[in-house]
Amino acid sequence: MNPPALRVPAPHVPAPAVPAVPAPAPGGPVVRGVGELVQVVRDGGYGVDPARVRVAVAFTTVQAVRHEGRSGGYRNEVLSLRVEEAVGSCAVEPGTLPAAALDDCVGAAAAELLDHPLLPVRIAALDAYLAHVRPHTPAHGARPHPLPAGGSLSRSRARARAVVGLLPATGIRRVLVVGVVNSLLERLRERGTGYVPCDLKGGATEWGEDVRTDALAELDSCDAVLASGMTLGNGTFQPLLDHAAATGKPLVMFAQTGSAVLPRFLGAGVSAVSAEPYPFFWLDGGPGVVHHYGGPR
Predict the structure, then answer these.
(1) Which run of H or of E encompasses 145?
(2) DSSP letter string, 240-283
């Protein structure tokens, strides 16, 4: 049974955001863009030369899902690269990743793959390297948040509660959601928080709301941004980061893509990250964990 419909507030001019004192990125310098982060990695800023770190395994995970009780479904495809004990990932549009990309990655040094012509390969390599040198542990600023065992929908809702809980508890009337996940929208509705759903694919939400396709056009009408790590893989992350840094608006990232990359932007626009490295919550029904950085404690 769907939750009761939310009375979405009329368009408004958001109250001026009051910038919080940003927390520095855990275990590294504050960086203000992916290109700057890559340069820090190349310069040895994380203590391990990426030219000496090699990818041993490259694989893709393809998923199709339609939760019981939901009117529609979706598909995911994710490229993952293994460096030592760590796995870095980047989602791609299903069917767009050339098969040769896996061959390019296996045995290659992380430094080489940071120059790969495909952006998803570059992001997955950066994620794998950073997951290796800055794993998701309390020593590096991560707070483990357990996810209970259960069915696909119950686990999706549990993750949504964890992600939305990283938004400020007060002062948020409308959230720009970049990368539509219906369980996240459902949780915002339960909180009585308005939202603008945005996704490059367009379409409609579970409740028949039009999904916008131009996130930048919606930024000024929202008090906070909740965005998928997929923005790293499709090149749309930087404008969101720049807007949050300039305005002080909360920018909360939920990240299967780039789970080790996005915590590096705490203090440079990102206010909180729900990091979910491989294996993802949708791969099995057992208990799991996501790793929180920043946000309310």
Answers:
(1) strand 143-147
(2) HHHHHHHH---EEEEESTTTTTGGGGBTTTB-EEEE-PSSPGGG
Query: What's residue 85's pLDDT?
Result: 96
pTM of the predicted protein model: 0.89
Task: Give the closest residue to 233 by CA, choosing from 192, 196, 211, 261.
Answer: 261
- The owner of tokens 């790590």 is 229
SS in 3 state form for 164-204?
HCCCCCCCCCEEEEECCCHHHHHHHHHHCCEEEEECCCCCE
Strand-pair partners of 194: 174
Q: State whether residue 111 is helix, strand or coil.
A: helix
Distance, CA of 207 to CA of 120 (rounded, Å): 31
Q: CA-to-CA distance for 78 and 63, rounded, in angstroms? A: 9
Q: Which residues pair with 62 in a beta bridge?
A: 77
For the chain, how many residues are written? 297
> Over the chain (297 residues), what is each successive 10-residue block's mean pLDDT?
39 42 62 97 96 97 74 80 98 94 97 98 98 97 96 93 96 96 96 96 93 97 97 97 98 98 97 97 93 93
The per-residue b/e assignment along 184-210, b for 16 or more CB within 10 angstroms, e otherwise, is bbbbbbebebbbbbbbbeeeebbeebe
**Torsion (CA) 18, 237, 225, 168 in degrees, nearest 10:** -60
SS3 label, residue 284: coil
Residue for token digits 């991560």? Answer: 142
How many alpha carbons fall within 13 Å on the CB side of residue 49? 2
Contact 168, 12 (CB under 8 A): no
